[in-house]
From TrEMBL:
Limits of the Core-binding (CB) domain: 74-160
Keyword hit for DNA repair: no
Name of this chain's protein: Site-specific integrase
GO biological process annotation, one example: DNA integration
Origin species: Cryptosporangium phraense
Domain (Tyr recombinase): residue spans on this chain: 181-400
Amino acid sequence: MTEPKRTRRGNGESSIYLGKDGKWHGRVTVGVKDDGKEDRRHVERKTRTEVVNAVRELEKQRDAGRVPKPGERWTLGKWLTHWLKEVALPSVSENTYAGYEVDVRVHLIPGLGAHRLTGPNRLQPDHLTRFYTKMQKQGSKPATAHHAHRTVRTALGEAVRRGILTENPAELAKPPRIEEEEIEPYTVEEAQRILLAAKGPNRARWVLALALGLRQGEALGLKWEDVDLDGGYLRIRKNRLRPKYEHGCGGTCGRKAGYCPARKQIRRETKATKSRAGRRTVGLPDELVKLLRKHREEQEALRATAAQLWTAKGYVFTSATGEPIVPNTDYHHWKQLLADAGVRDARLHDARHTAATVLLILGVDGRIVDAILGWEPGGAARMRARYMHVTDPMLSKVAKKVGAALWGSSAEDTT
């Protein structure tokens, strides 16, 4: 039986024909290329039935707007590299980009980079799920695997928006489960011991953490222009960023960039707070106003001692030469302070939990607590619930107050 010859179709119609190579071919118009010409896709099969089915499937994808754009046959590794440089770098903060870069360089490209994004052997949700499990078996924490999942989901979401992918496999992959860590804030007695152990020119830094719950970046990014001691308030507007360096020696020192004798800082020192709620004005108790006045006097004395070595940048908390404090240095100072105070080890962020708990226990209105701590209105109730830690002594005190109200217990029992 002689196969029918190829016939001319109208503009935009699909065509099916038997080629000189003995295979069946189909061509489907799916749109317009960047240069304005028709984007006409080609499929090839061994039988006419197979090519008819392939053409119909491509037409369905076209009609649903799910046909990938033509171009480079992306692997995950190539796309992640492109996405980091061309999409993420110009549009996200330095800290966010740093997290993306580590996920891509350390985990995603070595573990999944060879997978193609399109085609019959493309990246599948199961590949991602098995990769997260493998990460944890090799020693990564669930939170690390979860962060890698969020990064690849974001990157592939951009590929979908740009028409490179028709769907995001990371949306269907099951991310690692993260158990919310139970946080135990410091008691008032422990906080007092920490403050008594705090010495040196930046003692007020720890008072701000324990009394007002300032985040690390907020405290280290604070400048004197943001502090009104006469009015009794301070404004939170900036966050201190982790420094990033490059070699100033051309890489000849044989050290990492951060330890190069001629290193150069390539990241700005601060950035604006992330949200409107984070940009806030906080009232200062009289005791804290006095402490900050004394801190400023001590800083002026330190400046006089440093003389020409002093770098005047206006930060409230500085190094011995006026430079802003590096977050990693601040972290180690905190750990040493805990050891000096003889209290249990905890994260620096736990000081913020302590401040939140004290404010709530003192009966400060929830909206005021939200404003002091910089919580977004939409998630404020959830954050208050997380930070509201009620310790045994507090429960006992509340029970005594209830007893006094209901049964007339003596006033001494409620103190």
